[in-house]
Specification:
Rossmann fold; 23% strand
């Protein structure tokens, strides 16, 4: 745990040092909460980055820069209860934070919005897809998302990713089978969970899978 805390702190410091790479923004949720986020780049296609339970918006900094370099606008959010983000009347309903991020980007003139969520953020992204209006979400990547119960209602193009030794591998495969087309499944070697994969020798493969999926025509 100490190693993880140090790693997050270093990423946070690196983000602060390269402040010109993004600007901090905030927006309201439908239940009266307030979400703070880091906004990178420009473009008509944007990606919302939704972190896992032991991470925060700064943990996506490297991936946000890579997506920005590929011409995407990127919004890395802090979920309610993280950083300065605050919950509304619906408590821990994290999908509302993702939906609010989509609305914010649409208000900025973005034409297409995709989602990238790890673990807890993957489940929140999936739940947001189910709750979203048709066409609101162009596509999304779920990295080792916990079960959310309605995979048959997912909208948009879908990429499920999980390590073969992850304890959630079986449930990810099951939800992938139930999800409607278009959909894709990638099983990576190892047992690292969600964003932790970026700290392993599978980081480059994971990064390439995400970049190729989110930037395809």
């Amino acid at each position: 745990m100490k190693t993880l805390i140090v790693w997050i702190a270093l990423v946070t410091l690196a983000s602060a040092a390269s402040g010109a790479a993004f600007k901090q923004v905030s927006f309201a949720t439908s239940d009266g909460g307030q979400i703070f986020a880091n906004l990178y780049g420009e473009g008509s296609h944007a990606v919302v980055l939704a972190h896992g339970a032991v991470f925060n918006k700064e943990s996506w900094h490297t991936q946000a820069l890579q997506l920005k370099e590929r011409g995407l606008k990127v919004l890395a959010i802090d979920f309610r209860g993280y950083g300065k983000s605050k919950a509304g009347k619906n408590g821990k309903t994290l999908s509302l934070d993702v939906l609010a991020a989509i609305d914010y980007l649409k208000g900025q003139g973005v034409e297409k919005v995709s989602l990238l969520g790890g673990s807890m953020g993957g489940r929140a992204s999936a739940e947001a897809s189910v709750a979203s209006a048709p066409g609101d979400i162009y596509g999304f990547v779920l990295i080792a998302n916990p079960p959310f119960g309605s995979p048959q209602k997912l909208k948009g193009d879908k990429l499920f990713i999980v390590s073969e030794g992850d304890g959630l591998a079986a449930s990810v495969k099951s939800e992938f089978q139930k999800a409607p087309q278009p959909k894709h499944l990638e099983i990576l070697e190892g047992s690292a969970h969600a964003q932790h994969i970026f700290k392993t020798d599978k980081a480059e493969k994971l990064t390439n899978l995400i970049l190729d999926f989110l930037t395809k025509a």
